[in-house]
Specification:
This protein is an alpha/beta fold. 39% of the residues lie in helices and 15% in strands. The strands form 5 sheets. A 4-stranded mixed sheet has the order 1-11-10-7, with helices on both faces. A 4-stranded parallel sheet has the order 6-2-3-16. Strands 12-14-17-15 form a 4-stranded antiparallel sheet, covered by helices on one side.
Length: 382
């Protein structure tokens, strides 16, 4: 919190605009839209709410199917279930950890049929395929060209889960608008934060209007308690928007620092046989929100414990969603890499205020522990 956060929040308290109405909400939406390049942005209470509203606005209904990567935060799949729909879990690209466009293309070609009314049906489940929901995992842009091309050719909308990707680009454009709608999160751990918050971005005025309407309990205009649908209390507060506005002013600097931290880690691990950095930048430019490495799965828990003993907080990455109890009965497609890769993934410290010396300390400690494990394993084999 190194910008004008305190000043802006104090002004909310002074002016009395502390709830979901106030000048900072409007300002925050305009600035998010300007950064992303969208015609519309609607602020929400969190990224999960943004996903829920976006899916509803794109016509996802109970009984439908939505294509979801298995390697992501659980909110992605939960938002599908909130709509009464069912996720179809897809594998991840082993380098980017994101949904693989080739798998999406294969799914439509081999498992789907177009009905007389134009609906795309999954032959195995009998469900209508209502949306594709790629995730830019840890800020790494997904294979958008292939995913959007495959979905569009079948008339299925793409909703981008860009929760952790504010500041990430693909083919020179900010992520979030390659599909029909995009969703961002401004949770406390994101590259810029409102404490908690989210946003839906789109160039479709109808979708923006519907999202805004549903986010405010589907209340008609005016002061009367007049509602025309089942809506949600999903609006961002002015205080949160004030915090987020101050954070957005620092976005470019934060992204550049994050990328510098990631580059420093990569330099440390470039010649390592036991620590591998994930993420590639062919057509995308990641914001480097989180720094993810792969180690031997048998090494990970010991590494995390050793780092914790040194006062270094690192975390295991996601558990594939299709393995969790509430989703074990959900349909899947082309699962090969996620369950193999996930047990060895670790997110290392990478806050924008991390000094080079601290990055070096973390990297050296990770390398030291992993090297010791390799030597110990060789001794046991001998």
């Amino acid at each position: 919190m190194t910008g004008r956060e305190e000043e802006y929040v104090r002004s909310c308290i002074t002016d009395g605009f502390v709830s979901s109405v106030g000048p900072f909400v409007t300002r925050f939406e305009k600035e998010v839209a300007a950064i992303v390049g969208s015609a519309h942005a609607v602020a929400t209470v969190n990224g999960t709410a943004a996903l829920h509203l976006a899916l509803l606005a794109c016509g996802v209904m109970p009984g439908d199917a939505v294509l979801v990567p298995t390697y992501t935060f659980i909110a992605t799949a939960n938002a599908v279930r909130y709509c009464g729909a069912e996720p179809v879990f897809f594998d991840c690209n082993p380098e980017t950890l994101c949904m693989d466009g080739a798998h999406v293309r294969s799914y439509f070609a081999t498992r789907c049929v177009r009905k007389a009314d134009g609906a795309i049906m999954d032959r195995e489940t009998g469900r209508r395929v209502a949306a594709v929901l790629p995730v830019h995992v840890f800020g790494q842009p997904a294979d958008l060209a292939a995913i959007v091309d495959a979905a569009t050719s079948y008339g299925v909308p793409v909703v981008e889960d860009a929760a952790g990707a504010m500041g990430s680009r693909y083919d020179g454009r900010h992520v979030g608008l390659f599909g029909r709608v995009g969703c961002f999160s401004f949770n406390g751990n994101k590259i810029v934060t409102c404490g908690g918050g989210g946003a839906v971005v789109t160039n479709d005025e109808r979708i923006a209007t519907l999202v805004r309407h549903l986010s405010t309990q589907a209340k008609r205009s005016g002061i009367a308690y007049d509602h025309d649908a089942v809506g949600f209390n999903y609006r961002l507060t002015n205080i949160q928007a004030a915090l987020g506005t101050a954070q957005l002013e620092q976005l470019d600097a934060k992204v550049e620092r994050k990328r510098a931290i990631a580059a420093r880690y990569r330099a440390h691990f470039a010649s390592s046989a036991s620590v591998r950095c994930l993420g590639v930048e062919q057509r995308g430019r990641a914001n480097a929100w989180l720094m993810t490495v792969r180690v031997d799965p048998d090494t990970r828990e010991g590494l995390l414990a050793a780092l914790a003993c040194d006062g270094i907080e690192a975390r295991p990455a996601y558990i594939p969603l299709h393995t969790l109890p509430m989703y074990q009965m959900s349909p899947t497609f082309a699962l090969e890499h996620a369950t193999r890769i996930a047990p060895g993934c670790v997110n290392l410290p990478c806050s924008a205020d991390l000094t080079d010396a601290l990055v070096d300390r973390v990297a050296e400690r990770v390398q030291m522990y992993c090297n010791e494990r390799v030597v110990s394993s060789q001794h046991r084999s001998a």
